Amino acid sequence: MEVDHQYLFIDFEFTMPEGKARPEGFYPEIVEVGIVSVINDKITRRFSSFVSPERFPALTERCKTFLNITQEQVNGGMTFRDLIHLLSEFEQKHPGSTIVTWGNMDMKVLRNTCLKADVKFPFSGKQLDLSMEYKRFFGDQNQTGLWKAVQEYGKQGTGKHHRALDDALTTYNIFKLVEEDKRYLKKPEPTTIGDRIDLSKVFDKFAL
C-alpha cells in the first residue's frame, strides 16, 4: 500500500426483480452500503447504512429473502443523494483514493444510478476489481465468489455474507492476504554459501 494513500473498500447490496422478467425500466439500485477506509495499513473509518431506492422503492420478496433485510430497514435508510455526498467527502479528504471492490457490479451500479439521478460520480482515482486481481494472481479460469476466495485462504469471512460492511471488511482482509503473497513472490531467493564464496579457491587452497 502507498504511504498516506487512502484505500476505500466498498460493498453495495442492490435491489433485484422478483424473477427473470424485469419490470419496465428496472435497474438495480443500492439498498445498503458498507465502507472501510484504510490509510497506512490501518482502518481509519467504517461506515454502514441502508439506502432507500428511489425508482423502485418497494423491495421484492426475492430481494428481502436473499439479503435478509426488511422494507422498514430500507425505508429508514439514507437517500441516494446523501450517499453520494458521503462518498464525495471521503474523496475530498483524500483525492484520488483507490476504490477496491469485489467484482465490477458495485461501481457499475453506482455509476448508472448517478447517471439516472443526474448527479456527479463521486470518485476520481483508481478503481480496483479485487476479484479479477485474485483470478489473475492464482490463474483461475473462473471468477471466484468473495467468501469462497477467503475460504480458499483457510480463513473465514467477517460477519455475515451479503451484509455490506461485513463484505467490505472481508474484501479488505483478502486484499491484505493477496498483497502479502505478492510481496513474498517478489523477494529474491536467499543466497547460498556457495554464492557468497568462490568455493573453487577454497578447494585450491586445501589442495596445496
TrEMBL record:
Residues 6-184 form the Exonuclease domain. Keywords: Exonuclease, Hydrolase, Nuclease. SUPFAM superfamilies: Ribonuclease H-like. NCBIfam families: PRK07748.1 (NF005838). SMART domains: EXOIII (SM00479). PANTHER family: 3'-5' EXONUCLEASE ERI1-RELATED, 3'-5' EXORIBONUCLEASE 1-RELATED. This is Or 3'-5' exonuclease KapD. GO terms for molecular function: 3'-5'-RNA exonuclease activity; nucleic acid binding. Pfam families: RNase_T. It comes from the Bacteria. The keyword Nuclease applies.
